[in-house]
Specification:
This protein is an alpha/beta fold. It folds into two domains: 163 residues, Rossmann fold (3-Layer(aba) Sandwich); 78 residues, GMP Synthetase, Chain A, domain 3. Helix content is 44%, strand content 13%. It has eleven helices and seven strands. The strands form two sheets. The chain has a four-stranded parallel β-sheet, sandwiched between helices. Strands 5-6-7 form a three-stranded mixed β-sheet, covered by helices on one side.
Length: 266
């Protein structure tokens, strides 16, 4: 570990050491996994509580990864079932969808009796997130949830680097997001659309496309693969097989985003 990174990690540990009990908003992604690991290392797993929001908006593989990582850490696990498809303001899919969702989820976490007994909720936002369009950040600020990775100045690349050094299984995990992000803005989010996206992405993963997204806009499904996989999906035989399977799922108009998604594990 180089000196600047070592100092950042020590500073992160100092933040945790100021508390007798902490809670981590745990998605199972690279950032929250690193944060949970650091909290357990600083305080011991017996005083660390991981809160995770389960919903039909998460790919099934995400739920499995969350449970496995929690078992490895040995901390307390608080799975919370949420039903965003029952929230009219969420399914309307307006510009404030992510803000409203994040706020409802974190309010649910904070309503747990644990927080009346002195715990503090931490979120895995990192420095790079501040430069992106992330409406959920406003909800985090409004609720007073702490973001220690931002406070210390951790960038995504540094989090991956330390996660690899600590042998965390998530160090090279592809960026993930809820399936609602695949629906074009202002098009209503339905259970049928979410299920369709999930099945389409499962088809692509079986064909070796990791970190893939299938976005729906009207009747068109646009496939976005990692840039390194663009040549593979442009192969006529491969794309023909994908089209056949999507047709079975009820999709007739299929496009490919030829910009691709950056990075191997971005």
């Amino acid at each position: 570990m180089d000196l600047p990174l070592a100092k950042k990690y020590r500073d992160l540990q100092k933040i945790f050491s100021q508390h007798k009990k902490v809670a981590i908003a745990f998605s199972g992604g690279v950032d929250s996994s690193f944060l949970l690991y650091a909290a357990c290392a600083a305080l011991g797993p017996s005083v660390v509580h991981a809160f995770h929001a389960n919903s039909e908006l998460l790919p099934p593989l995400e739920t499995e990864r969350v449970e496995e990582f929690i078992r490895e850490r040995g901390c307390f696990f608080h799975p919370v079932e949420i039903k965003p498809l029952g929230w009219p303001e969420f399914v309307a899919n307006d510009a404030d969808r992510c803000y409203l969702c994040k706020k409802k989820i974190y309010q649910t976490f904070l309503a747990d009796p644990l927080f009346t007994r002195g715990a503090v909720l931490f979120d895995g936002t990192n420095r790079d997130d501040l430069g992106q369009d992330r409406p959920g950040l406003r909800a985090i600020a409004e609720l007073g949830v702490q973001t220690p990775l931002v406070e210390v100045g951790f960038a995504k690349k540094e989090i991956r680097e330390l996660s690899k050094e600590f042998a965390l299984s998530t160090w090279d995990a592809h960026a993930s997001s809820c399936l609602a992000t695949r629906i074009a803005p202002r098009e209503p989010i339905t259970r049928e659309k979410i299920l369709l996206v999930s099945r389409c992405e499962a088809v692509l993963r079986k064909k070796g496309f990791m970190g893939v997204r299938v976005r729906l806009s009207g009747e068109v499904a646009t496939i976005a693969v990692l840039q390194k996989d663009l040549r593979k999906i442009q192969d006529n035989h491969v794309f023909s097989m994908i089209k056949d399977e999507f047709l079975i799922l009820g999709l007739h108009k299929i496009a490919v985003d030829f910009k691709g998604r950056p990075g191997g594990a971005g």
